[in-house]
Amino acid sequence: MSLVSEEFPDEVCISRHITIELILVSAQCTHTSWTINTADLSDCLTLACCQHLGSLSSVLQVPLRAEEITIPADVTPERVPTHIVDYSEAEQSDEQLYQEISKANVICIVYSVNNKKSIEKVTSHWIPLINDRTDKDSRVPLILVGNKSDLVEHSSMETILPIMNQYQDIETCVECSAKNLKNISELFYYAQKAVLHPTGPLYCPEEKELKPSCIKALTRIFKVSDLDNDGVLNDNELNFFQRTCFNTPLAPQALEDVKNVVRRNMTDGVKDNGLTLKGFLFLHTLFIQRGRHETTWTVLRRFGYDDDLELTQEYLFPMIKIPPDCTTELNHNAYLFLQSVFDKHDKDRDCALSPEEVKDLFKVFPYMPWGPDVNNTVCTNDQGWITYQGYLSQWTLTTYLDVQRSLEYLGYLGYSIIYEQESQAAAITVTRNKRIDLQKKQTQRSVFRCNVLGARGSGKSGFLQAFLGRNLQRQRRIREDHKSFYAISTTYVYGQEKYLLLHEVMPDFDFLSEADLACDVVCLVYDINSPRSFEYCAKVYKQYFIDSKTPCVVIAAKSDLHEVRQHYSLSPHEFCRKHKLHPPQPFTCNTTEAPNKDIYTRLTTMAMYPHMAQADLKNSTFWLRASVGATVFAVLGFAMYRALLKQR
């Protein structure tokens, strides 16, 4: 199926069973038998099924009710097995009818074209009965079947069309003849189509326009397909869209034909020789008006939508197994994809996303996923806008802390579609068990978590914000309700770029959860100017970390202030010496420029090499080797990114 082809697409061949409930509304429904000349529902059903099953034979009489029959998938246009159930008022009770209605995916109401009372009963009895037995928000599609067309020379359509306009649940009307098999195949094709490609969720026949939910879904599809975010689908983007949805490219002339159709019908559907959103929506309106619902449904389902035009749970949350003691990270292809999304929305090429650019980026989401706290979780520029590094850091944080949320976000952005993957789970790397890393004394992980603990007012928040390059003066401008308990950025260890994730743990000595304790390195922060600040650090260490293999570092915060004696049995230096910890590391964020970041490189190094925490890490030359080139690599990486932008 292409934008201009009339063939059936492979994509719409969904493996599902459909129950077609055929309801007899003939005024002659109490007859005990039927002959071929008075063909009604049962003979229509029997002959049609015989035809589909390849065993058509002469049927002289038919029973009041046909047995349940399944038409195999390989003999139907949509290649979907269809389970057909007949109903007879003469043989079955109302309760049996109600049960069948509740199970049906589509109901065919059969009337006789030569019987006026039969037609009247469609609206006086059958449609009200069915509507009373189905939920208003999930009505079963109806098909009106005018049988015995061989007995009359006129059509009943003039009588039926007002009924179709009155009831939105009616998908279509088909006149047929069981005697000469006229339109029998079409009847079952339309029944299948009413289930697989219903009109109701897409189009409002009274207004002759797409429904809001359909417009919303197609708008997201357009924005995902607009790879350069210029507001139009150029030929390359249209061809990519075509291959994605229909597995075949469009010839150049076919592309021009599509655009010419739009040009003839609207003035703003084509711009700069590309298809605008209005033109894209017009094409789908045209497909539906011409009865080609399957084209629009194929597109919608390829982009993850269900019958209610909601993204499916299977699409947003693909299965991914995460064994214990393993973490989740984005892989190389995921970072490339996210970089392309950033480039797509960084209109002014300043390597940062303004509030308007962030809003534009998340237009394909049903809600705004990032709040104001994100700006205090990652690096920003002087205007407070999220930088390229900060943008990737936030994605890294989300993937580490909540991989399901990351999968959901990648689904909204269309990762699996753009990168032609089975699902966005292909963007995730599940790291190996940390115990194996310890045994092998090496790791391939890129993200390391540091939990920051300390008494209230010890300087934990300042320590997190300093990692993002903010001195005390900048930190004071942060609103209380915009503060974050996380900070993440990159550091360089032996020339390797790694992410360090800092998590400020609330000071509750009596209860620290597993999440508070699960990390790669621990920071115990105390205020050198507060006499009781260190006591909390000492108690937490002795209670939770003294026998742990997790490296611990003591931070002497606010080192620019006067140091007072701590009200504890041991001084901080004595405590560290006794427990074979590094001496307290002085730290302050009360600086003129950005605070010094050497301590963060040390933390990352300890997280990467926990087995060396009590050995080589005591050697100052080790720190020098580990942190050498960190600034150079950071500057070089930023410069290379700017150079790439200029080339593009």
From TrEMBL:
- Which is an annotated Pfam family here? EF_assoc_1
Biological process GO annotation list?
Answer: mitochondrion organization
Enzyme Commission number(s) from the entry: 3.6.5.-
- Which Gene Ontology terms cover its molecular function? ATP hydrolysis activity; calcium ion binding; GTP binding; GTPase activity
Query: What InterPro entries does the entry give?
Result: EF-hand-dom_pair, EF_Hand_1_Ca_BS, EF_hand_assoc_1, EF_hand_assoc_2, EF_hand_dom, Miro, Miro-EF-hand_domain, MIRO_dom
What does the sequence similarity comment in the record state about its family?
A: Belongs to the mitochondrial Rho GTPase family.
Q: What is this protein called?
A: Mitochondrial Rho GTPase
